[in-house]
Amino acid sequence: MSMSIHHAASEIHQKCFLREWSMENKSKWELLDMDCLVSIFEKVGMDDLLLSLPFVCKSWYRASLQPYCWKVLDIQHLQSMGILFTNRFVSTYRIKWFSSMGLVKLLVKLGHGSSVKVILPDEFAYEELVYISDKCPALKFLSLPAACILKDIADSIPSLVHKWRNLEHLHLDYIQLGFPLSKIVEEIGRHCKNFIGISVNAGIIDDEAVSAIVTWLPKLRTLDVRGTTFFGIMDMGFTLSKKNLLKILGGCKELDFLAVRECSQLKIDNEILKKASHIKNFKYEILDHSSDFGWGPNYDYDDYCDYWLEYYAEAM
Question: Whole-model pTM above 0.70?
Answer without folding.
Answer: yes
